[in-house]
Design goal:
This protein is mainly beta and about 350 residues long. The protein is about 5% helix and about 40% strand. It folds into 3 domains: about 5-45 and about 310-355; about 50-65 and about 195-300, no CATH class; about 65-180, no CATH class. It has 2 helices and 22 strands.
Length: about 350
Amino acid sequence: MAVRGALGLNVTESQLITLGAGKIYGVVVNSHTSGTMKVLDGVDNTAGAYATSTLTTSGIVYAKFPQSVLTSNATAPSNDATVTIGSIVYTYKTALSAGPTVAYEVLIGISAATALDNLKSAVNATTGAGTTYSTGTLIHPDVTATTNTDTTQLVVSKVIGTANNTKATTETDATLSWADTTLGGGTGTSVTGVATASSTFAIDEVSYYFTNQLSQNVTGATAVANEILWVTNDATALDNMKLAVNGTGVEGTDYSTGTNANESVIATTNGATTQIIQAKVFGSLGNSITTTETMTTTTWTGTTLAGGTDLAKTMLDTFSYATGSSNITFPEPITFSKGLYMVLGNTQNISVIFN
């Protein structure tokens, strides 16, 4: 084996080859009896470690968007019936006002289903201005009308958390009924908004939070980086956390678009209630990486990663030689920073190629 500028040192037992930084390119096996080799970055065979921490939950409280459902009894609403969402009052009409337009009128149309479709258009200020709802009607500032059926219309807050929980949701017609008198009232199909603080954790000052709806998937909302989708249970949420931290999942599905792999750690082993993270840098430097949260039922092992030690780091784990003498060249040189220590097993005589 010839490597320009490299040194060859004959070795027959475990020992420190050189101090400081360098590269090892391979070995020439002169002879051996069931020989093995292990390559360490360090000055001896005392193992070092990466710093780690574990996030443990007894039940994730995930962030939520306030939302509610308006239900029709399948009979079209009467003329002048009103539907109130927050500060906006929509008035149903058999015909939109002639002459000077009156904002927030909604055409009843030929059926209860049509009336709900027209209300959705008015709330979102989409196609139909001047025809299915009155000119001058603006997009609703607080909510988006999303999924509807022939008898139901879902409206969802444009902002996650508690801010819109108390927005009014009322009506004045017997054919219509809201799940609750406020958007986030929590009765029946209405959902109480939950603030992101209850579901937020941070790694090295990069904040993430769990939510049951990604902002970008709520119609009219844009992507917010570092949202992690809870889906159906905590185990799935932790799986998505691992994907988000490592940047290996599907943006817009497992976590929000714009979420990048964490620069300081990787997420390793997880379970139904735990997720371990490990520093990308080896040794005690990883112990300074911060881990914080504002969650009520979920905690980190500590406020920083711990357990990182600056001793030997395994670069090539125990390797067994083929029968007879041989040249072993690594596909890429192995870089070491503290020193090159070789652990040799059984009887052997090798030449180490390094610089």
